[in-house]
Task: inverse folding
């Protein structure tokens, strides 16, 4: 199953959406048009608009409101990516140089604010009050989640409760927003909107856990060693937390000390080996798997449809993907 | 007349507002509380909430909705200040070290996004759809204005039309928003809301022109020379544009060339002298004065009140202040 497969039942909607979106983004400021054109060219898999359309389909039917919701989440997501580039000082995004590297922090921050404002204005123009409520809350959760992660990074300490809260806020909130907005746009009952929101929340958490596992298991193309960016950056994620819980106390203490000296030769490799040896990978994936099972079980309360089937396939994909 | 004088008719409202605001800002993330507490301690003259309350008073009467509007603009303004700190890499804001210097870009960008989201959520919670429309449009204009300025900075060229558009978008839009939201919160007619918006737009532009003039006329405390930050940063503002228009063509061309080499010894001083010699200061101030006259004339369409009087006094102050 490839990424594009999920979009299959809604391909036409997505194509029309993309044409409208490019037109809506036109601005009187030439620099803005240049940056927007660059962003549109380098756009990703469009998982978020796809989820909006699929959720609308599964919740009763795609309407004109669905495209507005899809445009909102796409703008919001792009705004957070542009701001993340400043935050992470990322030189590359989706294989292309980041906006930050090309136009510096100044343009990246302003551009993110602009995209956020455009997204909100879209909802305001169409009087989509409920969309606004859902997305503004997601923006709050995303920034809170990221800030909580910064704070824990400083202390080099995270417990599992904090970890789960961070990934729920920083990642799952936007996925949940996509599903919820899709359902709202279909005119679904509040119970159905909530159900799809809960589906998205679980899938989003599984998605992030899989990301965190891949950071341990996928090898850097150049060195053939695990990427382990998270450890290098002092981020403690689920595989490590589980290994620390499984290992004898003495070993765990040693690893906690190593975490403070990841700049030293061999430290990162020792931590990765520890996580593998003490079953951190399997244990984290078991949790992701449970979340996906729960998410798919929620879907079964909805009538059967090709949209519902693709939502279930997407849920499954989040934990099976290898990148 | 001091800054605090404007707030005199609404002092009680403002005090109550400040107490509520601090409470509303509490978050479950300790780092956020720390940063928010820091921001509250270093808050400025609160001109923007003051304008919201005065406009509401002048437009018919302060209501519960007025405090919500004031909180929204305060959050929005603070968000833009925090983001400006990243953008300008400013080490100091209001005499204290900037959030950026203290917590790095990462926290500053996220914090700005968080404050923006909180502001929008406040309106959503109270179903203040009209507030949302006005503020989302202001956010769009502010980022567009800043981006237009970045773009013109690159070209080291600005004509007067572009300059006026930049200051309208980046500065006047938020002042206009304060006045308009105040009027809306008083339940005023659309015509009155528009009138107060137009008042704020003119006052905001005069405010920025005065800022740009002060950059030429106020002396740095240490060197006793004009600050001239704008020239050093390649920003071409109204005093220089007017001097270039007044001067003989040959002189103007020489100065345009100097603008490309402001790093050279003596260049900045020569440009400042040119602006003074060719009446750039007086000419720019005459425009600011006209804007303030127009703004005060608009107010005369409203019934007389202490609020209206303070709005007029504020308009006058924007061009008389020396810092």
Result:
């Amino acid at each position: 199953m490839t990424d594009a497969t999920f979009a299959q039942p809604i391909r036409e909607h997505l194509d029309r959406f993309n044409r409208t979106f490019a037109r809506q983004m036109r601005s009187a400021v030439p620099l803005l048009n240049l940056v927007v054109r660059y962003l549109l060219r380098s756009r990703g898999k469009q998982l978020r608009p796809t989820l909006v359309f699929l959720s609308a389909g599964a919740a009763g039917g795609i309407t004109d409101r669905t495209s507005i919701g899809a445009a909102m989440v796409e703008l919001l997501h792009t705004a957070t990516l542009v701001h993340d580039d400043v935050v992470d000082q990322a030189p590359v995004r989706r294989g292309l140089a980041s906006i930050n590297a090309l136009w510096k922090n100044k343009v990246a921050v302003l551009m993110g604010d602009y995209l956020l404002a455009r997204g909100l204005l879209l909802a305001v123009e169409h009087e989509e009050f409920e969309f606004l409520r859902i997305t503004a809350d997601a923006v709050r959760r995303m920034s809170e989640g990221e800030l909580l992660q910064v704070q824990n990074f400083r202390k080099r300490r995270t417990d599992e409760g904090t970890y789960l809260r961070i990934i729920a806020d920083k990642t799952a909130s936007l996925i949940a927003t996509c599903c919820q907005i899709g359902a709202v746009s279909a005119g679904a009952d509040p119970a159905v909107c909530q159900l799809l929101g809960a589906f998205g929340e679980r899938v989003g958490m599984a998605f992030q856990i899989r990301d965190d596992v891949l950071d341990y298991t996928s090898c850097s193309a150049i060195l053939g060693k695990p990427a382990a960016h998270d450890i290098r950056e002092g981020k403690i994620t689920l595989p490590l937390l589980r290994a620390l819980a499984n290992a004898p106390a003495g070993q765990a203490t040693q690893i906690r000390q190593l975490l403070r000296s990841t700049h030293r030769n061999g430290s990162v490799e020792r931590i990765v080996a520890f996580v593998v040896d003490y079953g951190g990978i399997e244990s984290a994936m078991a949790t992701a798997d449970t979340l996906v099972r729960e998410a798919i079980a929620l879907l079964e309360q909805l009538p059967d449809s090709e949209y519902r089937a693709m939502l279930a396939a997407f849920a499954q994909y989040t934990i099976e993907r290898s990148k």
Notes: Chain B has a mean pLDDT of 86. Residues 190-217 of chain B form the longest helix (28 residues).
